[in-house]
Specification:
alpha/beta, 327 residues, 7-stranded mixed sheet, 12 helices
């Protein structure tokens, strides 16, 4: 329903439409990019709300603290979705598993992720063994391993959690433009669809036709972004010990395994998304120093709303959406 039509509806009809609209929102719990802790941004983590569902999408270090700051309880989380196996995107998973177990929250938490996620979770559960033997004043009702299950998914994977449908596509974060060989680890981007609305999350990615296709017509695109020039200049100053060969490899990684503002704008424009939320800011120093350049880059290919995610900010996809931007 377009915005003009919404304004023409009687107030009672608008109210009825809103009553039928279940919540569908995305909270950027942590918006840092890369493995270097920063003062102003937490490690990558997101909270998806779809009706009564609460799902964590990536779980960087400190996720449980960020959840508390937005008033979300671990006992409310039904699932965790992991985009790829870099520590900054799963470093907070042990706390999610362990604290949930210690608090005797009922039910089994399902963790979805690319191949290798079972190995990852098994290792984390093994680390809870000493505490399970020692105890902590009360007797847990079940062993840690009985509180979680893992479902591995790959390129093209499909998941249904209640009314929420999730599609996964392999992106170029590990491979750049070369693609993947059978059996190789893959990083995933996800599209979340709920009651006719959709949010696409790039995770970490380089330029990728698969991500553009996945995002086609999405109400919201949540994308990583890098300030390549400032980041490379900072690396040159901060790491004078780095050999020229290693510096060249790092520069190639940044340029092919991540995306700039211009590349985000190209994806958003081609996919005709409703709005863009930027996160995973792999930039030196304060976001304020890079914000104007990043915004100008996105604007080169996309004319719709652009939001800079801050830690603990929420972005809603309501029922009554305006028409897509055509320019």
């Amino acid at each position: 329903m377009c915005a003009a039509l919404v304004l023409a509806l009687p107030a009672t009809v608008q109210a009825q439409e809103q009553v039928r609209c279940s919540p569908f929102s995305w909270t950027t719990l942590g918006t840092a990019g890369g493995p270097v802790p920063t003062v102003e941004r937490g490690e990558p983590a997101n909270l998806l709300r779809a009706g009564g569902l609460r799902i964590l999408v990536d779980v960087g270090d400190g996720t449980v603290n960020q959840m508390a700051r937005v008033g979300s309880d671990l006992g409310q989380i039904q699932a965790v979705v992991i985009s790829h196996h870099h520590l900054d995107h799963y470093g907070g998973l042990l706390a999610v598993l362990g604290l949930r177990w210690m608090n005797n929250f009922p039910g089994v938490l399902t963790i979805y992720g690319p191949p290798g996620t079972t190995e990852l979770v098994d290792g984390l559960l093994a680390s809870l063994g000493p505490q399970a033997r020692v105890g902590f004043g009360i007797a847990p009702t079940v062993p840690p391993a009985d509180t979680v299950r893992v479902i591995e998914i790959g390129d093209g994977g499909q998941i249904d959690i209640g009314a929420l449908h999730i599609s996964a596509r392999a992106n170029s974060h590990f491979s750049g433009a070369r693609g993947y060989q059978p059996g190789e680890a893959v990083p995933l981007s996800f599209r979340f669809e709920f009651e006719g609305r959709s949010i696409t999350y790039t995770g970490d990615t380089g330029p990728s036709d698969a991500v553009t296709q996945l995002a086609d017509g999405s109400d919201m695109l949540v994308s990583e972004v890098m300030d390549f020039d400032r980041l490379i200049a900072m690396m040159r100053v901060a790491r004078p010990d780095m050999s020229p060969a290693l510096f060249a490899l790092m520069t190639e990684h940044i340029a092919t395994h991540h995306i700039s503002g211009e590349q985000v704008g190209a994806i958003a424009g081609l996919a005709r998304v409703g709005q863009v939320v930027l996160t995973h800011f792999a930039i030196p120093a304060s976001l304020a120093q890079s914000e104007d350049d990043i915004r100008a880059g996105v604007r080169a290919g996309y004319s719709g709303p652009v939001h800079f995610g801050r830690d603990l900010a929420s972005f809603d996809v309501g029922c009554l959406q305006a028409d897509r931007f055509d320019d």
